[in-house]
Amino acid sequence: MTDTTTAQTATPTPEEAYATYHGRRELSVVQPTGSLALVNTQWIDSSQTIWGVPGTWAPLQKGESGLKLTAEESDNIVVDGLLVDGEVTVRGKDADQPSAIVFSDTVTGFVIASEEGTYALRVWDSNSEGIQEFGSISAFDYDPEWVVTGTFTELPDGTTVGFEHLKDDGKTRDLPIPGEITFSKGGVDYNLAAFKAGRALQLVFSDATSGDSTYSVGRFLFVAPNADGTITLDFNRAVLPPCAFSYAFNCPMPPKQNRFTVPIEAGEKQVLKKDGSLLHE
């Protein structure tokens, strides 16, 4: 007799899918290069040392990617698999083959580039104080009311919006935006700016919960337009910015059109220590 019974895989409910997503988020931030592992970002404009790691770091000639590292064998710095003894070029993330840096069993690094062509070393520690103290990411319960369908309209190439960053002393950076997102909720029309983040769009927003029940700087939401021009904004997937986890990040601030006056009680709230207190204010 042949058993024709097949195991059926139940489709998770939206609440179950949200719980799985949230659990993965909490795992992601404690990874070796997760948000809680970043312990330093130092921009290099002259020959200098960097807090927490050995060696002397200096800029390269204009137009070259990365930094120049001078170190001794005893510093035990490995770049691209080779122990450094003398001078070596550490290629930036904007290079075709960025360099990988290993300082110890727990500490690694890589070089990032700015829009202006300057470079910084980022240092990651998989045993950082933040990782040791981390307890959870608090979040609102799943709310289907905050799954919103909008419209995505492409804008001409070269369209930009000024974004202020947390550590830029009020200066703005003009970042390109590929299109605008519009939707209506509660009788209010919204027109939002999102910039490109890989294959997705990154929405930086704040709302009436910011600085109260959620992180003061605001939150991020990553979305992608559908083929028919619609776009789904599931604010239950709103996440805290990296600067909520480590002060070594410089996060963009929400532009004016992305500052909601209503509370969006969906998505992540705060980073908490093991004792339930805030990791960062």
How would you explain this protein's 3D organization?
The termini are far apart. The protein folds into two domains: 35-125; 135-273, no CATH class. It is mainly beta. It has helices at residues 14-28, 129-133; strands at residues 38-44, 48-50, 53-59, 67-71, 78-79, 82-83, 86-90, 101-102, 107-113, 119-125, 134-139, 147-154, 160-164, 172-176, 179-185, 188-197, 200-205, 219-223, 230-234, 268-273.
Instruction: Summarize the biggest pleated sheet.
Output: 6 strands, antiparallel
Subunit organisation of the chains: single chain
Low-confidence segments, given as residue ranges, are none
* Distinct helical segment count: 2
Mean pLDDT: 93
What's the shape? globular
Q: Which band does the percent of strand residues land in?
A: 35-45%
Structure summary, number of beta strands: 20
Number of domains: 2
What order do the helices and strands follow?
Answer: HEEEEEEEEEEHEEEEEEEEEE
Helix content: under 10%
Whole-Å distance between the termini? Answer: 65 Å
Q: How large, in whole angstroms, is the Cα Rg?
A: 22 Å
**Strand line-up in the sheet with most strands:** 1-10-9-8-5-6
Q: What structural category characterises the helix and strand content?
A: mainly beta
